[in-house]
Amino acid sequence: MSNTINRRIVLNARPTGAPTPEDFRLEQEEVPQPAEGQMLLRTIYLSLDPYMRGRMNDGPSYAPPVGLGEVMVGGTVSRVEASRHPAYKAGDLVAGFSGWQEYALSDGEGLTRLDDGMDRPSLALSVLGMPGFTAYHGLLNIGQPKAGETVVVASATGAVGSVVGQIAKLKGARVVGVAGGADKCRFAMETLGFDACIDHRAPDFAEQLAAATPQGVDVYFENVGGAVFEAVLPLLNVGARVPVCGLIAHYNDTQPYPGPNLVPQLMMRILTRRIRVQGFIIMDHFADGFDAFQRDMAGWVAQGKVTLREQFADGLEQAPQAFIDLLSGRNFGKVVVRVGEA
Ligand SMILES: NC(=O)c1ccc[n+]([C@@H]2O[C@H](COP(=O)([O-])OP(=O)(O)OC[C@H]3O[C@@H](n4cnc5c(N)ncnc54)[C@H](OP(=O)(O)O)[C@@H]3O)[C@@H](O)[C@H]2O)c1
């Protein structure tokens, strides 16, 4: 190992509203040495994901917050640099959770060994990893689309949404995406094969969405919340299913959502249309569902039936800005930081 310095990005301050670059701090330390039973991992790719915004808050949630001064959490693809672990040797390629840093120690917990011959190892952080599994589980186990039904998915060109729409097409559904801007909508239709895609920033978004779903909506895969959910709600059919995966429009909220209280109308709609709304956190499902997902998804990707656009940022120091951009839709595809040489 030639490098003796580990660069890492820690949480400098808890954000109020949208995170700023000052909420992060780049630090350097000596590269740690593995003890017996440990290995040293060198990060190649770091995944940036919306859930990280929640970890920057100090409050009760489904996962503990990152402490001030602690390394930001994150999924990674790494090379084993040195090993004193019986099951791994130097040179192995692994997926794990090293966080926003160039080197990390691991005792093997939570690591997945990757095939060194993989064409695109970064896909272990998206379509073949957590976001892909999120799409697969949420759509197939909760959304349960049937051939001929209409599926609407928000954040349609993102890591989760793009996979949701492509699986729904494989199941014979009509797929309508919602995305921010004409370029993303064109990509959703021309490359991902969606039947329609509506720009949520258009002033007549709700009217356009209604026109694109003449048979109503049977499955709404919720990634966003806010104005998109408000536009979808009146379109939901009797017996519709709503997997609630994410609410990214609200992650930076500091005030209660403005406007009249719509909860009574929402509940009335759920009752009279017999709508099933179910939230899920994908970490609950790895033990019982990840193997089946991996088999199906590896096949679909190899056959070209599911594809994914990636957007790379080069260098660990780019991670804060790339993350800030992700939260506001200035990304186009799955955001991955290239931290080190493959
Ligand atoms: N439940 C779980 O276990 C789980 C696991 C993974 C992810 N998730 C959730 O799934 C969602 C998608 O995650 P991802 O990793 O695939 O991210 P992503 O879609 O690749 O990136 C985030 C996208 O959100 C959209 N967005 C941001 N603010 C918005 C707003 N106010 N209104 C509408 N769209 C907005 C932007 O797309 P546009 O430019 O197209 O608007 C942005 O590109 C997130 O809510 C995330 O928290 C949940």
Care to describe what's here?
The protein is α/β, with parallel strands linked by helices and 342 residues long. Helices cover 27% and strands 25% of the residues. It contains nine helices and 15 strands. The protein has helices spanning 51-55, 130-143, 159-170, 182-190, 205-212, 226-232, 263-272, 286-302, 319-327; strands at residues 5-11, 24-30, 39-47, 76-83, 93-96, 103-106, 112-114, 150-154, 174-179, 196-199, 217-221, 236-244, 276-279, 310-314, 334-338. Strands 3, 4, 5, 6, 7, 14 and 15 form a seven-stranded mixed β-sheet that branches. A six-stranded parallel β-sheet has the order 10-9-8-11-12-13, sandwiched between helices. Strand 12, helix 7 and strand 13 form a beta-alpha-beta unit. Helix 2 (130-143) crosses helix 3 (159-170) and helix 5 crosses helix 6 (226-232). It is globular, with a radius of gyration of 21 Å. The two termini are 14 Å apart. The mean pLDDT is 96. It binds NADP nicotinamide-adenine-dinucleotide phosphate. NADP nicotinamide-adenine-dinucleotide phosphate (NAP) binds at residues 49-51, 131, 134, 155, 157-161, 179-180, 184, 200, 223-224, 226, 228, 245-246, 248-249, 280-282, 326, 329, 331, 334.
